[in-house]
Amino acid sequence: MAEPDRATGKFVAFYELIEACRQPGCPVCRRLTEGGRRHLDAMLYEQVTDPDTRRRLRASWGFCNWHAWMLLEIPGAVSGAAIIYEDLTRVAIERIGRLRRAAPARAGWLARLRRLGRPAAWSAAARRRHGRAACPVCLQCREAEERYAAAILEFVDDRELVRAYEVSHGLCAPHLLQVLERGAPTPGLDALVGRTLAKWAALRRDLGGFVAKHEYRNRQPFTEAEAASCARAVEMLAGGRAVWGNALHGARDGGSGAPGEITAASGAA
Ligand SMILES: [Zn+2]
Ligand SMILES: [Zn+2]
Question: In a designed cystine with 133, which of 5, 59, 198, 249 is the match (CB 3.0 to 4.6 A)?
Fold first, then answer.
């Protein structure tokens, strides 16, 4: 939780952003990725068998795609992950088995002709899973994202933040727009946009340098910034890896930024 620094009125989120500005990529995407990993870590070592944690994970059918795969990347996580997923696998077997028993094994000739029967039972089940409870780590990330947006808006003129932002790669496009959407127009916010656009212009120059030096007759070495420019541009436009969603299943910019995606509905099928 963000606790105010009594001397300056600054919040933990402010200092976390300052720290993230020293790392490559969008500072907010960096913080959300690290925060999610820390939350998973804590869950693994403290709450693997906690009844509340299990109940929440059953309601959400486990972690979301982002955090489920992140879980496997945590060193030494596999035994805790296996305990969690043994329980979730059992529940999934029960849910689908129950539906299978309720669903007709074979549709009559008329239903087959009209392609009815099976789709009704199973599509209702698919809809219920679609409306499952949110991934508990995403819920934490969502709260954190709100705090970072609020800290950026509140301290947009703060010299410490301006200095830290100067050495960062700047906000990704989706996070910049998220902040702009939340804040009233102020000269400070306009200056943030100006600083970000200057970073994007520098990134474009690095990309140009990278492309030009790729030409086979060119023997000039890439600068460090040029070598990293393509990955930086991808992050600038798409946001940090997995932080923002994809459109495969209909959600545009789903991930942590689409309020409609997350519901508190029970995941019980
Ligand atoms: Zn970002
Ligand atoms: Zn998640």
Answer: 59
CA 51 distance to own-chain centroid: 26
Q: What is the Cα Rg of the chain in Å?
A: 23
Q: What share of the chain is helix, strand, coil (3-state, %, to 5)?
A: 65, 0, 35
- Which of 169, 165, 137 has the alpha carbon at shortest distance from 151? 165
pLDDT computed for residue 269 by the predictor:
40
pLDDT tens figures, 209-234: 999 988 877 788 899 999 999 999 99
Closest-approaching ligand to the CA atom of 25: 1
Torsion angle, alpha carbons of 81, 257, 29, 147, to 10: -100
Dihedral sign, CA of 209, 211, 216, 222? positive
Tokens describing residue 241:
């890896």
Which residues are near ligand 2, the ion (C-beta closer than 5 Å)?
64, 67, 135, 137-138
